[in-house]
Amino acid sequence: MTGRKDWDTYFMDIAYMASTRSQCSRRHVGAVLVQGKKLLGTAYNGAPMGVPDCSEEGCMLVEEYELHVADGKEEMIRKQRCIRTIHAEQNLLLFTDREDREGSSVYVTDQPCWTCSNMLANSGVREIVFHRPYPKDSEKVSALMAARGIAFRQIQGYEPPEGTDHRIVN
């Protein structure tokens, strides 16, 4: 018999299981809301209810450019993202109550993007725990969480449950 899972592993496993509901062809993301050790909600990324998703209609991709300055050098970074789907973190906020979010933790399979981070920063959560990094927004998201006093950490050495989709397509 194996040992009991720690709480981080337990809740991240649930986030990965939620991600199996996603129909996004680019990335399956799951999120869970936890107050103490009590699970309050789960969500995954996908099209709005009743609307064809990416597996039915294909991704709705847009390109954006962002100025990145490093060592005094300016560089334009091209970003491509699908706008058909609502992100897992956004769905989690839509389907949970503000009072449940106050002082709670969010476990999410992927580091939140800038937009989701802004929403989470104003949601009442005190901690965000993620597994897979999202380098495109990492620095500015980390700075935002530090400014808001929200614990923001990546789980190290974590292995997702068998049967969940771990691929990352950018």
From TrEMBL:
Q: Tell me the GO BP annotations in alphabetical order.
A: pyrimidine nucleotide metabolic process
Which InterPro entries does this chain map to? APOBEC/CMP_deaminase_Zn-bd, CMP_dCMP_dom, Cytidine_deaminase-like, dCMP_deaminase, dCMP_deaminase-rel, Deoxycytidylate_deaminase_dom
Q: Name one GO cellular component term.
A: cytoplasm
Q: Where is the active site?
A: E89 (proton donor)
Which Pfam families does the protein's record reference? dCMP_cyt_deam_1
Q: Which UniProt keywords apply?
A: Hydrolase, Metal-binding, Zinc
Phosphoprotein as a keyword of this entry, yes or no, is: no
- A Gene Ontology MF term for this entry? zinc ion binding
**What family name appears in the similarity comment?**
Belongs to the cytidine and deoxycytidylate deaminase family.
Q: What is this protein called?
A: CMP deaminase
Report the source organism.
Paenibacillus chitinolyticus
